[in-house]
Design brief:
transmembrane; endoplasmic reticulum; mainly alpha; 69 residues
Length: 69
């Protein structure tokens, strides 16, 4: 075997772990791209940033108006 390859013992152990997780009902594989996209927020980060900027900016301007005027 080449140095980068796992030994037969390691492969058997990992296969057994995979089988246990599969039997337990856990998702042993990496989620698909569609599943990852389905879990994403419907609002983009840039849109959330703009909303926060507008709200925080309004609060800051109101505080300045109250203090100085």
């Amino acid at each position: 075997m080449s140095p980068g390859q796992p030994t037969e013992f390691e492969m058997r152990r990992r296969n057994a772990q995979f089988a246990e997780k599969a039997r337990a009902g856990k998702n042993p594989t990496k989620p698909s791209r569609q599943e990852q996209l389905a879990k994403r927020s419907p609002v983009g980060m840039w849109a959330l940033g703009i909303v926060c900027f507008v709200v925080m900016g309004g609060i800051v301007l109101e505080l300045i108006r109250l203090v100085f005027l």
